[in-house]
């Protein structure tokens, strides 16, 4: 089509020929274009032959109207202009380049000539596009009336109901999500507080250990330094031959030795705190009931959602957590009090041991409550 349009284009105005006139050299041009050329030559001698813009051959003339009309070219241009106004014809996807110019009345679809000869359409009824257009136009009107009479009101009502149900369900899910987030935030906060409390108690135990060991360690370290100084003194005067000087040094050396000998040594038996600290094993906490948090029921993806259908049993979990808190507190307190007892705090240990016994009863009660069915 592009090559055809190029052949139907005037070389002067580069548009489709309009009232084409042919020169003696057989080249054609638009009448208006030739008149423009003649108008430009008006100053020259009248009736000067027109030179062809393409080949420069001369053509005598008596004005543009006197030039011969190219009827064949004009007819081709008119037909081409009409064809160009039509929409581009669709082609068959199965047979490349073949136009869809046949309508299969059996399958109710457009096909090409090759499609009509295949086994797929054997025995089918075919019709021209014009006849099919008339029949399908009537069918279209019936379909349109059917669409217009469709139960759109019922569908809209059902759609609104579904949308409202979806909105309500999503709001319910969001509320439950907020409840779960709030609950576990509080649970984590409480566990964090218990962790800080235990670490604080361990810091207290650290101070107890330091107060128990540091005085004797300082005293013994000072004694060792005094021993080093005494030995250094002995090395310095053992080769002295002057009696007076030697006796003076010997007197001072004997005094230092007397101080070392009278330095009291601590009893390691009275400060056996290290093993008690090592026996503090966090693995024992695994037996606490908080590990059952991973057994909390969650909404199943195949079950229609309903707010609270897979609820978190907050009272029971809180009871489990209180049991954890009390147990951890009692466990750590026992270690601290034991260490304090080793540091000669028997009255305090006796008083707190009584409270721990009462706490054990409290824990037993909570455990019974937690294990009870909902």
TrEMBL record:
Regions that span the bilayer: none
PROSITE patterns recorded: ZF_BBOX, ZF_RING_1, ZF_RING_2
Gene Ontology MF terms in the entry: zinc ion binding
Domain of life where this protein originates: Eukaryota
Annotated InterPro entries: TRIM/RBCC, Znf-RING_euk, Znf_B-box, Znf_RING, Znf_RING/FYVE/PHD, Znf_RING_CS
Record carries keyword Lipid metabolism: no
Alphabetical list of Pfam families matching this protein: zf-B_box (PF00643), zf-RING_UBOX (PF13445)
Domain spans labelled RING-type: 10-56
Keywords: Metal-binding, Zinc, Zinc-finger
Span of domain B box-type: 87-129
SMART domains, per database record: BBOX, RING
Protein known as: Tripartite motif containing 13
